[in-house]
Amino acid sequence: MDRLNGAIITDEDAHIKQSIADILLTQIGTRIQRRDYGSNIPKLLDNPITRTLMLQIAACAVIALNKWEPRIRINQFKPIYQDGKVIVNMKITRTDTKQNMNYDNLLLGGK
User: Fold this and answer.
1) Most CB atoms closer than 10 Å: which of 6, 37, 71, 88?
2) Are 98 and 84 in contact (CB under 8 A)?
3) What backbone phi and psi angles, to 5 degrees, belong to 104?
4) Cut 0.85: pTM above it
5) pLDDT digits over 10-27, tens only?
């Protein structure tokens, strides 16, 4: 189901992209029945933007996605600070079809 409008998602790629966003933007400890679900990225986003922070965001993302999204393998994960926002560009491979996918401009934080 699409989290924004409740419509049925029939495209597996769209469902994977929605799942990736949900995992990365959900703070660990906020899901009642799955306390370890999500990532620590939301906690990091209040820190000053530095190269170290970008590496920490990438590490948290890869750990969370490897744990919670078995349908993908991460080939590249690149957080970018641009225009007051932290966005992510990713290259992934679906584990079932071996299809390569790009997921660009995922907004992690900012205004």
Assistant:
1) 88
2) no
3) -110, 150
4) yes
5) 888 888 988 999 999 999
* Domains of the chain, start order: 12-110 (3.10.450.40)
**DSSP H or E segment with residue 104:** strand 100-110
What pLDDT score was predicted for residue 56?
A: 96
Task: Describe the chain by its helix, strand, coil percentages, rounded to 5.
Answer: 30, 30, 35
What are 88's two structure tokens?
């992510």
Tokens, residue 46: 């209040």
Number of H helices, E strands in the chain: 3, 3
The β-bridge partners of 85 are 82, 110
In sequence order, which ranges of 1-111 are alpha helices (DSSP H)?
12-25, 41-44, 51-68
